[in-house]
Amino acid sequence: MLIIGIAGGTGSGKTTVVRKIIEKLPAGDVVLLPQDSYYKDSSHVPVEERQNINFDHPDAFDWELLSNHIAQLKRGESIEQPTYSYLTCTRQPETIHIEPRNVILVEGILALCDDTLRQMMDLKIFVDADPDDRLIRVIQRDMLERGRTAEAVMERYTRVLKPMHMQFIEPCKRYADLIVPEGGNNRVAIEILTMYIRKHITPDVPVANTCQP
User: Fold this and answer.
1) What is the pLDDT averaged over residues 185-200?
2) What is the pTM of this model?
3) Nearest-CA neighbor of 132 among 23, 34, 11, 49?
4) Could you give the CA distance from residue 206 to residue 173 in angstroms, rounded to a whole number?
5) CA–CA separation, 109 and 100 (whole Å)
């Protein structure tokens, strides 16, 4: 089993990188554990106060549960992945049944932040992008998917996202085995990652050079 951590700032292109890697690998060989599924349950917090929760701070995540789930998968055990509602800021009663697979992708802004989690990873990746590009993507996403105005997104970016990125996310670069600039647009990096994964899950099968045009 190969455990791969993929971190990077909001809007850096992590999700695109993950999607393209999964598309290039055999169906059923990869399982994705989004770090967002492991936010701590905030149902005990009054509804009017939940909007003040800093979801870009390491304290917002249930690191112990995520580490335990990865350990279970490595032992060949299935897990029940939690689900989280961004509308209510609470963990939902529904779970997602996950069986062990050859490759486990752990993706999230702070996927490389926790030392215990890093020690379990075979490969650590940091997806990098220009801050202006990340801001544009965040504005587009939040306006389209979350009904926010551009002004509200920029205010939150300045007040929360940018300082949290500089304090916690950007320093994680030093833990990365590979830094991928330009996110999902970096075709060569994605091909190299795919070849690396294929080599480790099928070590006896020669890997073709898919970087050739």
Assistant:
1) 91
2) 0.87
3) 11
4) 31
5) 23
